[in-house]
Amino acid sequence: MKIKSQRDFWSGLMFVAVGLGFAWGATEYSFGTSARPGPGYFPFGLGILMAVLGGAVLFKALTIATEDGEPVGRFAWKPLIIIVGSMVVFGLLLPRVGMFIALPLLVITSALAGDEFHWGEAIVNAAIITAFSWLVFIYGLNLTIPLKPWFMG
Fold first, then answer.
1. 53 in any annotated domain
2. Where are the alpha helices (H) located in the chain, listed in sequence order?
3. Is 97 found in the same domain as 34?
4. Average pLDDT over the chain, rounded to whole?
5. Domain that holds residue 13
6. Who is most buried in 7, 33, 86, 91, counting CB within 10 A?
7. CA separation, residue 81 to residues 62, 74, 118, 131, 149 (Å)
8. Both 81 and 148 in a single domain?
């Protein structure tokens, strides 16, 4: 079978692989029931949904012809390194400096990966995401995520 869209083929394959990986990883947790779902219920469902959507994109790549085959372009290493590095730094800093410092730092440094970086937009996005994260995770779900640096109590 001939691949008719390189871009859709590889992205569909990636979604299938990641979705199946998440679904497989979720089998290590208890599922619970529909009325009282366990910790594996939601990631398993999302993983399967992602794999199904990836399968649809993969099917489209193999059946619907495009004009030039939509070749995959060059790999964007700089944004990948910046975003993955930002997430690693966030994971390391969160327990030490808290959400109010680590999350805005994550948003701003991740925004540096884009071609159209503006300080004002990055700061506003960081403030909105931090406020929303506090509202959902701390106030709404009562999770114990450190908010301030460890030396501030």
1. yes
2. 6-26, 41-63, 77-97, 99-111, 119-133
3. no
4. 90
5. 6-63
6. 86
7. 31, 15, 19, 27, 26
8. yes
